[in-house]
Amino acid sequence: MKIGRSFATLGLFFWAFITLFPLYWVVVTAFKAPPAVNGGPTYLPWIDFDPTLQAWRDIASGLRGNFVGTVTHSTLIGVTASVLATAFGSMAAYALVRFPFRVKLGSGLIFFAIAMGGYLVLLNYGGLSRSNSMLIAFSAALVVAVLVNRMHLPGPIMGNEDIVFWFVSQRMFPPVVVAFALFLMYSELGKSGLTMIDTFWGMTLVYVAFSLPIVVWLMRDFFAALPIEVEEAALVENVPSWRIFVDIVLPMSTPGLAATFMITLAFVWNEFLFALFLTNSKWQTLPILVAGQNSQRGDEWWAVSAAVMFAIVPMIVMAAILGRLMRSGLMLGAIK
User: Fold this and answer.
1) How far is C-alpha 264 from the geometric centre of its chain's CA atoms?
2) Nearest-CA neighbor of 186 among 205, 213, 164?
3) Does residue 121 have a pLDDT over 50?
4) Which residue has the higher pLDDT, 332 or 38?
5) Which of 30, 45, 80, 172 gives a 20 to 30 Å CA spacing to 202?
6) Average model confidence (pLDDT) for the chain?
7) Are 208 and 303 in contact (CB under 8 A)?
8) What is the distance between the alpha carbons of residues 73 and 281, in angstroms, rounded to a whole number?
């Protein structure tokens, strides 16, 4: 028994070393001078090399780009998108837990036929622009599909579990395909006068859509674990459903909402591909600026490491807070 525990402890120490050493390497490299980086590996400050703040001075002076601006952009976009995604995703997750849904496959096929067919007809024969054709066709298809779904249609019927799977399956698409399609759509909207590329709301709406499947997936299991007896007692007192959700369910779900918000913010904060496709300079986010930390002389790792510190420190803080919530009994406290 003791031997097994000793092997387990050694394995944990080894795994901790594998996990933490890259972080340590980034930290010490951020305080190295160029000769200490290019002259071979050095590990210990004041022993192997003399620490310097030159990389940080370059960042503070703006020599390495507008770090203050990109950190502000990432914070504003990340927090706004995470708040909106958590709010809308929580409402969707609660509805999927407490109310039965029946979506007929036929109504989905009708939606697709009207949306695509209407778009092509309006574009080729209606004389409308692509953005206007898309807006009218998809709006009409949504209204017709909702009305048709209430009728008797042949074919399979999808329930709550199928809807949840559909939400989660949105993350299975290759991100580069989605990013390219969004770029084309935003370009067409820009031709109609609605600028979305390299804007705050353009990036925020993308990240809300990008994060909704995660929020629905996380919050659905959390709401399912809440005691339904409290909600049933409120229904007996004729309390409206929206007040039950706002005044009873949300306060009980505060730890789960906080954890979901932080997980969502971590995804948005570190997202690279959408920001690469959909921003230029006005609303460039931190991952893009970090990825561009090189020069004509090659990769300057002391500058790259200092830039990476700006990106990973907030996430380390978030992970520490999230770990504290979990250790303090996140789920148990919510159920109580």
Assistant:
1) 5
2) 205
3) yes
4) 38
5) 172
6) 84
7) no
8) 11
Token digits for 92?
């969707």
Whether residue 331 is predicted with pLDDT greater than 50 in this model: the reply is no
Question: pLDDT for 232-273, tens place per residue?
Answer: 888 887 888 888 888 888 888 888 888 899 889 989 998 999
Q: Is the pLDDT of residue 1 over 70?
A: no
- As a whole number of angstroms, the distance between CA 108 and CA 7 comes to 55
Q: Of 252, 262, 214, whose CA–CA distance to 331 is shortest?
A: 252
Give CA–CA dist 55/97, Å, rounded: 51
Amino acid code (one letter) for 232: E
Which part of the chain is CATH 1.10.3720.10?
66-100+159-336
- pLDDT band, residue 43 (cuts 50/70/90): confident
- The single residue listed with the structure tokens 């622009």 is 129
Identify whether the C-beta of residue 225 lies closer than 8 Å to the C-beta of residue 334: yes
Q: How far apart are the first and last CA of the chain?
A: 37
CATH superfamily for 66-100+159-336 is MetI-like (1.10.3720.10)
| Cβ-based neighbour number of residue 175 at 10 Å | 14
Q: How far apart are CA 334 and CA 219, in angstroms?
A: 12
The residue written with tokens 């010490």 in the block is: 28
CA atoms within 13 A on the CB side of 80: 14
